[in-house]
Amino acid sequence: MKLIALIIFITTYVLLLSFPRYRTYLSLLSAVLFMIIGIVPLNKALTYIDWNIILMIGGTMGIVNLFIESKMPALMADVIIDRVPNIKWAIVSLTAFAGIVSAFIDNVATVLIIAPVAMGVAKKLNISPVYMIIAIAISSNLQGAATLVGDTTSLLLGGYAKMDFIDFFFFKGRPGIFWIVELGAAATLIILLLFFRQYNQPIHLEEKQDVEDYFPTYLLVSMVLLLIIASFIPNKPNITNGLICITLLAIGLFKELVINKNNHALNITLLQIDYETILLLIGLFVVIGGLSEAGVINDISKFF
Q: Which of 67, 129, 176, 258 could form an SS bridge with 216, CB 3.0 to 4.6 Å?
């Protein structure tokens, strides 16, 4: 049984790398195979899924979409650009801003927020946006590892290692991963200043983005604060962080539907959630559970 489980896992891993467009289906297919063969008992399959992480991802994605729709990120970017003297500092500032946002928002969503601003700046100055977009993407990807809610991988790490929000800053009395990431971010900003040293064209925005609804911003800030507070609560239910995120999303949707009378908010927000990633993780949770059930993970840990 161990050999069969290992063969299925390795095959799945290779296929995930070879066909990334179909990774969700491959993950779910592998999970189904584990159940059909009997490696994972049907009555235990759902117990291997970390519902706290699933709820955190779904809730965070929904809140982020409301935040993006409110136009607040675009306004923040506009304010930053309007306060810098030239395009060099605009690029560096946007890159730093992307990193800060990505520490609390999914990487892809962060790039979707910042990239249009960079494209607009490049078009206005008649320069190529390629280097700007690359810099923003790299900064976003790096800073996603800085906090518990910065990226899916951070959520997975926090879930398996039983880490809370504060643990990313100080873990067992020592500086956490956040500070290492920030050292890397500081180094990248110095490199960007050198790389874009010839981009000294002046820049000024004639008008800034208007924001009519600040409530999604309050939701996002509340999510971060509540996750921090939850970090200090001992013996809390394992699903606490997920419930915080999904509850705040429900509050945001309630306000849009009932108070703002925005009947399209529910469809727009729910459609923007990355269900493929959620299903991918559900499949992988079952697969990893199958490896554990077969004793493969225990054997690997003994080997190391």
A: 67
